[in-house]
Amino acid sequence: MNAAPPLEKDVVPDPTPPENGLSFVEEIHNLLHASVGNPISSCIQCGTCAATCPVASGGFMEHTPRRIIALIRAGFKEQVLKANTFWYCASCYQCTVRCPRGIDIAELMYGLKRYTVWKTQYQKGLIGPVFSETFVKMILRTGRSYEPILATTYIFTFGLPEMIQEAQNGTALMLKGRLPLLPPRIKRLENFKRMIRRIIPLGDSE
Amino acid sequence: MKTYAYFPGCSLEKMAQSYHLSALETTRVLGVELKELEDWNCCGATAYFHVDELLAYTLSARNLAMAEKEKLNLVAPCSGCYKNMYFTREHLLRDPDLAEHINDALAEDNLRFSGSANVQHLLEVFVHEVGLKEIRAKVTNPLKGLRVAPYYGCQILRPRKDHEDIEQPRYFEELVGALGAEPVDYPLRLRCCGGALILTNRVAALSMVRNLLESAVKAGAAVVATACPLCQVNLECYQKQVNKEFGTEFYLPIMYFTQLIGLALGIPPKRLGIGSEFVAVMPAIAEARDADPVPTGK
Ligand code: SF4
Ligand code: SF4
To answer: How far apart are CA A189 and CA A203, in angstroms?
Structure first.
C-alpha cells in the first residue's frame, strides 16, 4: 500500500550500523519474542496508533508511536533510543487494541524501556527510568511498594519545583491518613528473596 | 456463600483504604466472602515490566500459586494488579518452558503455579458473579437523581482479554442503573487517566486528568465512579493542581463504585471510608436526594 511518509529533516539520514551482527530491527524483534502481537514489519503506517494515543495526541511525545516504528524499521537506533516516546507511554493499550495489523505497540514501548534500562542509554533528565529502578529495588527489599519512598527518590533526583509539588500532595495524603507511616513487608521475606535470586542474580539488594 | 482469594494490592493498604473498606462491607451484604490472600506480594505495578519481564511474571506467579493452594479464584480491586495477574497466568499457560523456569524459583517458597486459579476484577465479581438482579433486589436506598459518570479507564478493558466488548462496554452503566442512579454518557469514559505518568510526566498527566474531568462535567455528571485506586487518586487528588495549571475550577467527587453500592445498600457512609476525600462526596449525594427525595426505610 502506501509508502511510509517521509521522515522529517531532524532525522539524521544515516542509520546506525549493526551491533554484534544484529541490525536494530532484529534486536527489536528479539526483544518482542514473547509478545503475541504481529511483527512491526507488518505496520502499514496508517497512524491509528498516533491518533488514538492520549499522550501523543496531546503533543507530549517527541515522536508518535507510528513514527517510532518507522524509525526502527529504517534503522535509526540512536534517534529511537534517545526519544521520550516510550517513557511517556502510559501503558493504556489503546493503540494495541486499535491497530489494524494487530501489532502490540504498548508492548513495544515496554520493550524499548527495558532495552534502554539494560543499556543505560536513556535520555538524560527523564524521570521514568530512575523511578522504575527505585521501585524495583524497593520491592526486592520488602515485597511490597511504599509510596513515600518513591516520592523521596523522586525528590532527590529531580530537584525543587517538582519536589514541592509532590511533597505537598504527599503531605496532604499523609494528613488525611491515606499513606502508611511504615513500609509494609511481607512475612516470608527470606523465601521471597531467595526466589528472586533464582530469577535474577543479585548482589545483596540491601 | 461464594469465597474468593482477595488480593488488595499495595495501594489499598492505606492510600485507597476507602476502596478496601467499601469492598469488604458491600460483599458481605451480598453474600460474597473476600478472603485476603495470605502474605501476598506486590504485583509489580508497571515498573517491573520496564526493568525485567521475567521478574514481573515471577511476582504475579507467586500470588497466583498461593491462591491455587487455597483452591480459590483470585480477585483484584486494582485494575493494574488485575491486568498483571491475568496476563501472567495467560502467558505462563501458553509457555510451559517459562512456567517451569518460574516454578523453579517458586519452589524456594514451597509454591507451584499450575494455572488452576483464574483472575477476576472486583467489578466483574459484582456484575457477573453476584449479578445485577441480586444487587437491585438488595438496594434499600436507591441513589435516585444522582448523575454518575462510570469511568472504565484502561487496564480493566485493555489489552483485550477474552470475551468482553472493549469498544462499547455497558456493564458499568448497568450497575450504576441498578443502584437507582442515572448513568451519564460521556466521550472519554474509556480513556486513560494518565495515572502512570503523574510522577514521570506531570504536565501530560494533568492535561489528561483535565480532559477527563471536563468530559464528565460537560455531560452533567455529579460524581465519577471508578474501579481502580490509581484512577481514583489521579482524578481526585490532582484536581487542585489541574485547576492551578489550567485555570479551571473543577470540584468533582471521584468515588469507588463500591462506595456507591454501599450507599444504595444502606451502609453508613463512614463504614465505606467516605469522609477522607479531598473533594467531598456527601454534598453531591445529598443534593441529588433533595432534588428527588425518596422515602427512607420501609
Ligand atoms: S496502528 Fe498499527 S499499522 Fe497503523 S501505524 Fe500504528 S502500528 Fe502501524
Ligand atoms: S499504550 Fe502508550 S503508546 Fe499506546 S496509546 Fe497508550 S500511551 Fe499511547
So the answer is: 16
